[in-house]
């Protein structure tokens, strides 16, 4: 994000190619959701800390490479962000 900021970029893309799970057998859904939510909050905090004014983007990746992705499509991302941020907006 720092390089994007220094180069005058207008947005920063988060590609979560490994966020998700393959099976529910070894997945604590609450922990996974809370950790990813906290990561997203940290990204927003860092954006403000360095003064980056650009837009943060999340690139959907349906089942790539895991069975379930938190960024499966735009509706899933929207629902996830509303759940972990309780309606807060940046």
TrEMBL record:
This is Xylose isomerase. GO terms for biological process: D-xylose metabolic process. The lineage of its organism: Bacteria, Pseudomonadati, Gemmatimonadota, Gemmatimonadia, Gemmatimonadales. Belongs to the xylose isomerase family. The keyword Protein biosynthesis does not apply. It comes from the Bacteria. It is found in: Cytoplasm. Its EC number is 5.3.1.5. It catalyses: alpha-D-xylose = alpha-D-xylulofuranose.
């Amino acid at each position: 994000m720092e390089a994007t900021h220094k180069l005058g970029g207008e947005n920063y893309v988060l590609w979560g190619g490994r966020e998700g799970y393959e099976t529910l057998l070894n997945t604590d859904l609450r922990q996974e959701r809370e950790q990813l939510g906290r990561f997203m909050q940290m990204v927003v905090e860092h954006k403000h800390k360095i003064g980056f004014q650009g837009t943060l983007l999340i690139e959907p990746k349906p089942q790539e490479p895991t069975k379930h992705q938190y960024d499966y499509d735009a509706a899933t991302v929207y629902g996830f962000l509303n759940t972990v941020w309780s309606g807060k907006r940046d």
